[in-house]
């Protein structure tokens, strides 16, 4: 039996988990509420990899009162010794009588064993309450654990006539301050930001999260690191003085033969990570790139790139969400398209469905998913 009270506590646990949106990577966001009847005894969320898991924080708040109580956790409690000891064991030792887990942990070192551990110790287990919401909380962690690749968000800023820059390449700024702050938040929830060398050469972007521009983050845990910056750069043309290289934490993906060349060696000497992958006529082998980023522990990837790389991602059907910021301006018919995607007939059109539509100052933000 699941009642409204149980659902409300799990919803609260989801809210707590979301506080870790800028800080838990590569770990998932997890929240926990410990309650007896309608009384909350403890609350916790996972803040940072290496630090206490959500259950441990909630248990320490509840103290001895946890005996006989119910725990609501957004993810199956872990059963393994990772950077921290198993939460399932801690719940058993605290005497918790009933555990609600929204979803299984797809991590192969857990995946059901946490729930088994609880059941074997005589704890009642109820699985699946608000499961859909819990999966949506960690789309990247779930996807990486299940298929080894990050969840991909493609960001675009465009005009009313679907242009993303002038013919000269000039593009600052199409959208207003509110949309740009929203992009900062989007970067901050991402584990990595991918761009192409064309964008590096044309715009010299930093692709960093600037805390001051994030604005008020409410009760979220402070971002604990910059997202990894990733550059698709077949011939290692990224200038050693490029802004994006400052502060480190950069991986460049070039063509394998490029690895041995002088420009690549110079970048490696600066501490840049260099990876050789396959390139095809129309650009980088994106699947190989995504596999590699999955191995690096990237859960949520943000693609902020020019028309070539954006076109490749769309064409290869590798975008999970498209975030389109549209400004109420015309950039004119000589402006650059958001994506290079030459299509012949209406039958080739690439259809999307709108998940969310919002006004940000004068601009609108659409979040879309493949239809
Ligand atoms: C939980 N509660 O709050 C989180 C869990 O290296 P560790 O010890 O931090 O373990 C990381 C793994 O633990 C992570 O990959 C995921 O399977 C699980 N995360 N589990 O019971 C939590 N964050
Ligand atoms: Zn745990």
UniProtKB/TrEMBL annotation:
<dbReference type="GO" id="GO:0050661">
    <property type="term" value="F:NADP binding"/>
</dbReference>
<keyword id="KW-0378">Hydrolase</keyword>
<comment type="function">
    <text>Converts 2,5-diamino-6-(ribosylamino)-4(3h)-pyrimidinone 5'-phosphate into 5-amino-6-(ribosylamino)-2,4(1h,3h)-pyrimidinedione 5'-phosphate.</text>
</comment>
<dbReference type="GO" id="GO:0009231">
    <property type="term" value="P:riboflavin biosynthetic process"/>
</dbReference>
<keyword id="KW-0686">Riboflavin biosynthesis</keyword>
<keyword id="KW-0862">Zinc</keyword>
<dbReference type="InterPro" id="IPR002125">
    <property type="entry name" value="CMP_dCMP_dom"/>
</dbReference>
<feature type="binding site">
    <location>
        <position position="78"/>
    </location>
    <ligand>
        <name>Zn(2+)</name>
    </ligand>
</feature>
<feature type="binding site">
    <location>
        <position position="187"/>
    </location>
    <ligand>
        <name>substrate</name>
    </ligand>
</feature>
<feature type="binding site">
    <location>
        <position position="87"/>
    </location>
    <ligand>
        <name>Zn(2+)</name>
    </ligand>
</feature>
<feature type="binding site">
    <location>
        <position position="207"/>
    </location>
    <ligand>
        <name>substrate</name>
    </ligand>
</feature>
<feature type="domain" description="CMP/dCMP-type deaminase">
    <location>
        <begin position="4"/>
        <end position="126"/>
    </location>
</feature>
<keyword id="KW-0560">Oxidoreductase</keyword>
<protein>
    <recommendedName>
        <fullName>Riboflavin biosynthesis protein RibD</fullName>
        <ecNumber>3.5.4.26</ecNumber>
        <ecNumber>1.1.1.193</ecNumber>
    </recommendedName>
</protein>
<dbReference type="Pfam" id="PF00383">
    <property type="entry name" value="dCMP_cyt_deam_1"/>
</dbReference>
<comment type="pathway">
    <text>Cofactor biosynthesis; riboflavin biosynthesis; 5-amino-6-(D-ribitylamino)uracil from GTP: step 2/4.</text>
</comment>
<dbReference type="InterPro" id="IPR004794">
    <property type="entry name" value="Eubact_RibD"/>
</dbReference>
<keyword id="KW-0479">Metal-binding</keyword>
<comment type="pathway">
    <text>Cofactor biosynthesis; riboflavin biosynthesis; 5-amino-6-(D-ribitylamino)uracil from GTP: step 3/4.</text>
</comment>
<dbReference type="InterPro" id="IPR002734">
    <property type="entry name" value="RibDG_C"/>
</dbReference>
<dbReference type="InterPro" id="IPR011549">
    <property type="entry name" value="RibD_C"/>
</dbReference>
<dbReference type="GO" id="GO:0008835">
    <property type="term" value="F:diaminohydroxyphosphoribosylaminopyrimidine deaminase activity"/>
</dbReference>
<keyword id="KW-0511">Multifunctional enzyme</keyword>
<dbReference type="InterPro" id="IPR016192">
    <property type="entry name" value="APOBEC/CMP_deaminase_Zn-bd"/>
</dbReference>
<feature type="active site" description="Proton donor">
    <location>
        <position position="55"/>
    </location>
</feature>
<keyword id="KW-0521">NADP</keyword>
<feature type="binding site">
    <location>
        <position position="171"/>
    </location>
    <ligand>
        <name>substrate</name>
    </ligand>
</feature>
<feature type="binding site">
    <location>
        <position position="210"/>
    </location>
    <ligand>
        <name>substrate</name>
    </ligand>
</feature>
<dbReference type="GO" id="GO:0008270">
    <property type="term" value="F:zinc ion binding"/>
</dbReference>
<feature type="binding site">
    <location>
        <position position="53"/>
    </location>
    <ligand>
        <name>Zn(2+)</name>
    </ligand>
</feature>
<dbReference type="InterPro" id="IPR050765">
    <property type="entry name" value="Riboflavin_Biosynth_HTPR"/>
</dbReference>
<feature type="binding site">
    <location>
        <position position="304"/>
    </location>
    <ligand>
        <name>substrate</name>
    </ligand>
</feature>
<dbReference type="InterPro" id="IPR024072">
    <property type="entry name" value="DHFR-like_dom_sf"/>
</dbReference>
<feature type="binding site">
    <location>
        <position position="173"/>
    </location>
    <ligand>
        <name>NADP(+)</name>
    </ligand>
</feature>
<dbReference type="GO" id="GO:0008703">
    <property type="term" value="F:5-amino-6-(5-phosphoribosylamino)uracil reductase activity"/>
</dbReference>
<comment type="similarity">
    <text>In the N-terminal section; belongs to the cytidine and deoxycytidylate deaminase family.</text>
</comment>
<dbReference type="Pfam" id="PF01872">
    <property type="entry name" value="RibD_C"/>
</dbReference>
<dbReference type="InterPro" id="IPR016193">
    <property type="entry name" value="Cytidine_deaminase-like"/>
</dbReference>
<comment type="similarity">
    <text>In the C-terminal section; belongs to the HTP reductase family.</text>
</comment>
<feature type="binding site">
    <location>
        <position position="203"/>
    </location>
    <ligand>
        <name>substrate</name>
    </ligand>
</feature>
<feature type="binding site">
    <location>
        <position position="199"/>
    </location>
    <ligand>
        <name>NADP(+)</name>
    </ligand>
</feature>
<feature type="binding site">
    <location>
        <position position="157"/>
    </location>
    <ligand>
        <name>NADP(+)</name>
    </ligand>
</feature>
């Amino acid at each position: 039996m699941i009642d409204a009270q149980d659902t409300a506590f799990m919803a609260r646990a989801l809210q707590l988990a979301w506080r870790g949106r800028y800080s838990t990577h590569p770990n998932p966001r997890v929240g926990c509420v410990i309650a007896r009847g309608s009384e909350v005894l403890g609350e916790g969320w996972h803040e940072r990899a290496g630090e206490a898991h959500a259950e441990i924080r909630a248990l320490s708040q509840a103290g001895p009162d946890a005996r006989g109580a119910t725990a609501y956790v957004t993810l199956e409690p872990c059963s393994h010794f990772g950077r921290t000891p198993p939460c399932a064991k801690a719940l058993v030792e605290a005497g918790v009588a009933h555990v609600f887990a929204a979803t299984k942990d797809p991590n192969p070192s857990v995946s059901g064993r946490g729930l088994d551990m609880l059941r074997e110790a005589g704890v009642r287990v109820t699985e699946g309450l608000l499961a859909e919401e819990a999966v949506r909380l960690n789309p990247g962690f779930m996807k990486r654990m299940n298929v080894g690749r990050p969840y991909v968000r493609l960001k675009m800023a465009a005009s009313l006539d679907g242009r993303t820059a002038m013919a000269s390449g000039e593009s600052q700024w199409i959208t207003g301050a509110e949309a740009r702050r929203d992009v900062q938040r989007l970067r901050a929830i991402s584990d990595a930001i991918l761009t192409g060398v064309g964008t590096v050469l044309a715009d010299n972007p930093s692709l960093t999260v600037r805390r001051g521009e994030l604005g008020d983050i409410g009760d979220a845990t402070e971002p604990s690191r910059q997202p990894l910056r990733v550059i698709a750069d077949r011939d290692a043309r990224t200038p050693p003085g490029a802004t994006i290289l400052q502060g480190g934490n950069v991986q460049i993906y070039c063509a394998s033969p490029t690895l041995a060349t002088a420009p690549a060696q110079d970048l490696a000497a600066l501490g840049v990570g260099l990876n050789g992958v396959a390139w095809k006529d129309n650009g980088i082998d994106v699947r190989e790139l995504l596999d590699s980023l999955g191995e690096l522990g990237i859960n949520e990837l943000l693609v902020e790139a020019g028309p070539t790389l954006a076109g490749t991602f769309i064409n290869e059907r590798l975008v999970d969400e498209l975030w389109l910021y549209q400004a109420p301006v015309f950039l004119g018919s000589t402006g650059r398209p958001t994506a290079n995607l030459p299509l012949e007939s209406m039958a080739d059109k690439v259809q999307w469905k709108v998940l969310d539509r919002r006004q940000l100052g004068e601009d609108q933000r659409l979040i879309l998913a493949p239809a």
